[in-house]
């Protein structure tokens, strides 16, 4: 079942300005690379990336960066499994420490960039049929690859928006709305 637009009741997020209507098969890779570049800026910048205080339940900016890196890696693996393309496995080499907060921010920035670049390259090869394909392993075939990709990118954008706000950094070219 092809979707003309994503089945979102509110296509523009009021918190991070992600616009699911303008995110499609032709823009997803570019958008992912834009967010990865913004994450690199945040993770390698001068701001303190740690939690604001002990006992704070919210993740730090560094922990969110680690999560975004891992989402890119996991999504790439899921994409390969969903399309039954065993040749298309996400790049390896990411260390998994016991805690995100113990990772080196510059190393995370490098890994996130590599993971996002590999995933973006794969996204550029998707056909319209693949973009609209549901995952046969899931009960809801309306959760197409396109819907899942939009969800991933919205999650990355939302985390980035929070990181930029927490470190008081504007987006590189202003607040970018897709």
Which series of helices and strands comes N to C? HHHHH
Question: What structural class is derived from the secondary structure elements?
Answer: mainly alpha
What is the CA–CA distance across the termini? 25 Å
Radius of gyration: 16 Å
Main beta sheet strand tally, sense and closure: none
What share of the residues lie within helices?
A: 40-55%
Which of globular, elongated, flat, extended, rod-shaped describes the shape?
globular
Number of DSSP-assigned strands: 0
Mean pLDDT: 81
In terms of DSSP E residues, the strand content is under 5%
In DSSP terms (H or I, runs of 4 or more residues), the helix count works out at: 5
Poorly predicted tracts of residues: 1-7, 85-90, 174-178
Write the layout of secondary structure elements.
Layout (H helix, E strand, L loop, with lengths): L27 H17 L16 H22 L22 H19 L4 H4 L13 H22 L12
Question: Can you give a write-up of this model?
Answer:
With 178 residues, the protein is mainly α. Helices cover 47% and strands 0% of the residues. It is built from five helices and no strands. It has helices at residues 28-44, 61-82, 105-123, 128-131, 145-166. The longest helix is centred in the middle third of the chain and has 22 residues, at 61-82. The model is unreliable at 1-7, 85-90 and 174-178 (pLDDT under 50).
Keywords for this entry:
178 residues; mainly alpha; 5 helices; globular; disordered N terminus; disordered C terminus
